[in-house]
Amino acid sequence: MTRQATYTENDTQDAAYNGEHMAAWAMALLALVLGAIGLLRGFGIIGDDPVAQEVGAAGTQDPGFGAIWDGALWLLSAIAAAFLAMTLHTTDHHRMRDPDRVRDADRGMWRTEHAAAYLMALATLVTLALGLLTGFDVFDRGNDQPDGLPWLLASILYGVLAYTLHAVRHHQLAADEDAIVRIVERRLGTDTAGTVRPTTEYGTERQR
């Protein structure tokens, strides 16, 4: 990989690092808001419970499903959002990755798992939204709060999978003396691009 290609790759990784870090803060804020609503509603501080003659009122279809069920929906969605916050806050692999020192197999697995993590994150958000919309009968299909539980439990599952797949650091090679020297050279602007140096790890010479 040429020095220009390496710099381009580094810029891409920096952009991903910053984007994920900001998204982690957004998910953390969302989790806090959802959790706060869940606690306030669960303890009956906000919202009203319908009486028997008001079955079908917004937020619950049965007077037996009161504040505690409403609070459960909000809190489960908060847990799913918190998993996303934790997932997106594991960004060190975007700062430590050295493309010149990664085998093709590891690079492929790194990108595949990272892309799959994004897919699971999207699934987390979609099922979270469906859980809340179904549980509070926004679709006006006569659903009760428990009807939203499968969606929210699935959202938590996808959040755990997103965190698992986003842990791609094990596909990065451990730093050695050569990698450290090259990092210092880049910082000082003295990287000797275009020279051919032996790479003992693979037993071949690679263009730097």
Features of the shown structure:
208 residues; two-stranded antiparallel ribbon; 6 helices; disordered C terminus; elongated; mainly alpha
Strand content: under 5%
> What separation lies between the terminal Cα atoms?
6 Å
What's the tally of helices? 6
Question: What characteristic shape results from the CA principal axes?
Answer: elongated
Summarize the helix and strand pattern as letters. HHHHHHEE
The total of beta strands comes to 2
Sheet with most strands: strand arrangement: 1-2
- What structural class do helix, strand and pairing data support? mainly alpha
Gyration radius (Cα, Å) is: 24 Å
| Uncertain ranges | 193-208
**Tally of domains:** 1
The level of helicity is: 55-70%
The profile of the biggest β sheet is: 2 strands, antiparallel
Mean pLDDT across residues: 77
Q: How does this structure look, described?
A:
- The protein has 208 residues and is mainly α.
- It has one domain (3-193).
- It contains 6 helices and 2 strands, in the order H-H-H-H-H-H-E-E.
- A two-stranded antiparallel sheet has the order 1-2.
- Strand 1 and strand 2 form a beta hairpin.
- The N and C termini lie close together (6 Å).
- The model is unreliable at 193-208 (pLDDT under 50).
